[in-house]
Amino acid sequence: MSIFKTIQIAVKQVFKSSKKTFDFESIGYLPRWLIILFDISLCVIALLITSYIITNVLDKPDHYLEFGKIEYLIIGVNTLFFLFFRTYAGLIRHSSFIDAIKFFLASAGTFFSLLILNYVFIFLEGERLLPISKLVIYFSISFSFLFLFRVLVKQVFESYFQYANTNGVTRVLIYGSNTNAIAIANALKSEIPSRFKIIGFVSPKKDESKQILGLPIYYLRKNISVLIRAYKAEALILADKNLSQEERITIVDDCLDHNYKVFRAPLVSDLEDDKNLTNQIQNIQIEDLLERSPIVLDNKLIAKELFNKTVLVTGGAGSIGSEIIRQIANYQTKKIIILDQAETPLYQIESELRFEFPEKDFDCIIADVSEYKNLDHLFNRYKPEVIYHAAAYKHVPLMENNPSEAIFTNVLGSKNLADLSIKYNTEKFVMVSTDKAVNPSNVMGASKRIAEMYVQALFFKHKSDNVKTTNFITTRFGNVLGSNGSVVPLFKKQIQEGGPLTITHPDIIRYFMTIPEACQLVLEAGAMGNGGEIFIFDMGKAVKIIDLAKKIIKLAGFEPYKDIDIKTIGLRPGEKLYEELLSDTSTSLPTYHEKIMIAKVAIATHKELNSEIEILIDFAREFDNNKLVSQMKKIVPEFKSMNSIFESLDKNN
User: Fold this and answer.
1) 562 is catalytic
2) Alpha-carbon dihedral of residues 639, 640, 643, 647, nearest 10 degrees?
3) Which of 13, 209, 305, 581 is disulfide-compatible with 536, CB 3.0–4.6 A?
4) Which of 261, 415, 436, 633 is catalytic?
């Protein structure tokens, strides 16, 4: 293709955008032909100034307006280099250092091309085409004009939008003065429409430099709320990547106590691109305030455990089961089988996974874990090598009113899966349990404790017989923020409805984890377990539910008891004031992971336990609640009902 053809194509591409219209609000999207016209005009002005300087030196000031072939040649060559380096392609109001480099290269290209052409002309014609001094002066002036024009336009736009979008803009301080904070500030300054007006930066260390991006750095001497009030800000954006969890909680609590909003900014290094950087700046969530350090996993151990394996996840459409699936989908599994009896949630998780992991091999199965024959067919077909058993009924008051269903799913379902794992030589079986299984005060907790006892007894029976068996592992943790039916979604719904928030008792406390944290620890414990262990997780500090309610109200921008009320409605059936991770007779052993411990509990004899469970299942099939719960208390002696109709069964014993 000839050089002329190339230029023709380039020119056509430039002028394609000429059909676009614009106004001042969208002037950042000027058509390319207009941008290049501005640049050529600046070059013409630069050339006139150059001619004026040269003619004054030669004492011919009246000739500087003469525009001949040489001047047209200079402008033409300069325009070709504009097209070659695509200096017109960027948005003027977003000009950066890269744009300055492009202009420098275009100007330098023009200078050297004309310089070479000048020497060629001397060689062929014996005289120079134009003075070198003229080239040098033109190069300096044209580049300066092009660069300063961008700077001026960018500054005008920033000033315009800074003052034009003041309505509804939140005055904020940015906590941090490192590269992450600077990147966040840059993104917010160019955001349209603006949500925030940045007042300055906050640094916990006294910094010698007084400004960043033309904004002051304030040294944090006292509480952050004092600084926010002093500089008339309305909110704080946390952008310091070095903040510890304790420091973060202290800052947020201080802001909330004084009715200041707090936003969290992402780590720029964690983003694939910065196009939606400002969209990632969101209100602090209650999950951010868990008093616990981040969990670090041994991904290599988990990857080895799951490599090329067929994995079955029961309860796969639930909040815990679905998150386990999302996490194991990131590893190189052979096949993932998702089992649940809830049709619509199962369809939803299948649709999500097909979209997010199109290369993965998934099968979704609708089945009830209490149906042995259906499970037997599934095991015979797929031969699962690793099982994560998350299927369970978990709502305490509902199970208190429907104890037979708790037995069918939590006990019989777990027993069916465990027995079939032995039959089909499953390598590892990880059961998801709960802290409510410790010194249970309700049917749900007791049913999960019985399931724990059974899988543990089954493992040690086969181990004592020196038979190769499935490695049965139990994981036990507390409440999960955001899971189906948990307190946080309920509180958020009640706030949307205008309140009040309802708590069962002012002194009730609970341990909390996020769903991803809980599932991460399930995978880690499953990978490290050798069979027979009950793993318990470090849940951090216990949280008073009333304090949780107050924080959620403040995070929503309201004042507790004034804007949104909090009411006590009394303990629900089977509910106790606090949960435990270990029973009175149990101890714990550490593991290599500081967040995971092993509970040392008494091991039941499989033969006796199996007989007692068979009796329990028969009572469940008869729907004789009193006999059923009495049998549960026989199997789990520490099961003492609280706030329940079954308390009388304890008094009779």
Assistant:
1) no
2) 110
3) 581
4) 436
